From TrEMBL:
Subcellular location as annotated: Cytoplasm
Lineage of the organism: unclassified sequences, metagenomes, ecological metagenomes
Main location: cytoplasm
Occurrences of domain ATPase AAA-type core (ranges): 139-205
Name used for this protein in its record: ATPase AAA-type core domain-containing protein
GO molecular function annotations of the record: ATP binding; ATP hydrolysis activity; DNA binding; nuclease activity
UniProt keyword list: ATP-binding, Cytoplasm, DNA damage, DNA excision, DNA repair, DNA-binding, Excision nuclease, Nucleotide-binding, Repeat
Species name: marine sediment metagenome
Statement: the UniProt record of this protein carries the keyword rRNA processing: no
């Protein structure tokens, strides 16, 4: 390639730098070509690890990391633009929404939107996500955090006369967050909805209004209705392992 290896990057000329980065078009594909090749192999964990070692994310100097156009940042509600709101934690956002005072005109146009947003933020806080900020990148979330976000998304609406079916929602939750999950489920029930939960966690089973115990074993050893009724009725059923 004709590039001196005893010189630092800063001392290389423009042509030499271009060859290193972009390649020479005659066998050497360049650093950019190498990473383009790696991007095409992201389905392999080794490629993703290799990319992560050499990739860095820097905030945009224009928007300060808000990832929004300047025109969008000009619009403010309660003295804050959407970029500043996105940097709040969900706990801080809950408090800000509660204290937000709008003019009669804005209240008429955005009051219902604020109520819906407050309901979703409140649900996320009750399942233990109050420390997360809205601008948190998805790739940095743990498996449990991602699951709780999905749970909050599903449960954070204000529907009525709806049927919710949840398959082991307590998986990945810290034990202290199970009680918060139950508060969310109770609130959904009290809004006039039906909540069907498939669960093994004793705390959630004990909190049910009505239990259907299937068994007696798992897989091919189950599928039989062992008992049905309130928690006390299940406990009095000798054939029920749950009781």
């Amino acid at each position: 390639l004709g590039i001196p290896t005893d010189r630092s990057w800063r001392r290389l000329g423009k042509r030499a730098r271009a060859v290193v980065i972009e390649g020479d078009g005659d066998g050497w594909y360049g650093v950019r070509g190498f990473f383009d090749w790696l991007e095409g192999r992201r389905y392999k964990i080794q490629a993703r690890v290799q990319i992560a070692r050499y990739r860095r994310f820097d905030p945009c100097e224009t928007c300060g990391g808000a990832r929004l156009r300047p025109e969008a940042l000009e619009v403010q509600v309660g003295g804050r633009h959407i970029g500043e709101v996105a940097r709040m934690t969900l706990g801080e956002l809950d408090g800000w929404l509660s204290s937000l005072t709008l003019s009669p005109a804005l209240e008429a146009r955005g009051g219902r939107l604020r109520e819906a947003l407050a309901a979703r933020v409140g649900t996320a806080n009750r399942v233990g996500l109050s420390y997360l900020s809205l601008d948190r990148q998805v790739r940095t979330l743990s498996g449990g955090e991602a699951q709780r976000i999905q749970l909050a998304t599903a449960l954070g609406g204000v529907l009525t006369a709806a049927l919710y079916v949840l398959d082991e929602p307590s998986v990945g939750l810290h034990p202290r967050d199970v009680s918060r999950l139950l508060e969310v489920l109770y609130a959904i029930r009290d809004q006039g909805n039906t909540v069907v939960v498939v669960e093994h966690a004793p705390e959630i089973v004990a909190a049910a209004d009505h239990l259907i115990d299937l068994g007696p074993g798992a897989g091919s050893h189950g599928g039989t209705l062992v008992a049905e009724g309130s928690v006390d009725e299940i406990r009095r059923e000798p054939a029920s392992i749950t009781g």
